[in-house]
Amino acid sequence: MKYPSGLIVFDMDSTLIGIECIDEIARLNDCYTKVAEITKAAMEGKIDFSESLRQRVACLQGVSESSLQRLFNPIPLHPGAQELFAELKEKGWRRAIVSGGFTWFADRLAAELQADAVVANQLEVKDGQLTGRVVGDIVDAKIKAQSLQDLANQWGIPMSKTVAVGDGANDAMMLENAAVGIAYCAKPSLKRIADYCIEEPDLCQVLTCLSHSKLL
C-alpha cells in the first residue's frame, strides 16, 4: 500500500470559494446587512464563532432549500482551485475541506474538486425550508483543529506532513496545529500566526508555499 504524501485541509468560504455562503443566503431572506456584520466580527475574532453562527443561521429561517442552488451555479471557485487540487492529487496528497460553513455547499464543492473528506455544519431543513437551526455540534475552531488531527490519524499521516489553509480567526487553531499554516487573503489576526501568507487570489500559490517548506 502506498501511503499518502501528506494531508492538506482547506477552509471553504473566502478560501476555496469567493463568497461567504451564509451572507449570500441572507440576501435571499433580506437580512444580509445584519448577518454580514456578525460574520465580519466572527472572522476578526471579536465574538465567539459558535454563538455567532447560531445568531446568523436563525436569520435564515424560511429560505427554501431549492433557492440555494442559484448561489452555487456555477460554483464560485477562487482562481487556481481546480489546478491546485489536481496537482496535489497527482502527487499523492489527501485533500480535505474543513469548514465552519455548511455541508450543502461543501459536499458539492468536494465533488467538484475531488476532495477526500468534508467536515462542515449541517443546516436543518423541514418541508423544503431552512428552520434557522444547525443539526448537531457546530464546527468551530476547536473542531476544525481536531478534524485535522483525526484525518491525519485516519490516513496514517504524521502531523509533520500536514498543512492547513484558511482566511479567518476560526482557522487559527487549525493552522497552528498543522506543520505548515497558510493564510490565504486572510484577516490580520490569522496572518500573525501563519507560516506563509498569500495576498493574491490565486490558490496555485499554495504549491509555492509547499515547495518552500520542503513538503512538496
Automatic annotation (TrEMBL):
Describe the reaction catalysed, as an equation. Answer: O-phospho-L-serine + H2O = L-serine + phosphate; O-phospho-D-serine + H2O = D-serine + phosphate
Q: What class of enzyme is it?
A: hydrolase
Task: Write out the GO cellular component annotations.
Answer: cytoplasm
Give the NCBIfam families listed for this entry: HAD-SF-IB, serB
What's the short name of a Pfam family annotated to this entry?
HAD
Q: State the EC number(s).
A: 3.1.3.3
**UniProt-recorded name of the protein:** Phosphoserine phosphatase
Q: Which PANTHER family match?
A: PHOSPHOSERINE PHOSPHATASE
GO MF terms listed in the record are: L-phosphoserine phosphatase activity; magnesium ion binding
The record's annotation in InterPro entries points to: HAD-like_SerB, HAD-like_sf, HAD_sf, PSP
Identify which cofactors the protein needs according to its UniProt entry: Mg(2+)
User: Which pathway or pathways does this protein act in?
Assistant: Amino-acid biosynthesis; L-serine biosynthesis; L-serine from 3-phospho-D-glycerate: step 3/3
Query: Which BP terms does GO give this entry?
Result: L-serine biosynthetic process
Which protein family is it in? Answer: Belongs to the HAD-like hydrolase superfamily. SerB family.
The UniProt keywords, alphabetically, are: Amino-acid biosynthesis, Hydrolase, Magnesium, Metal-binding, Serine biosynthesis
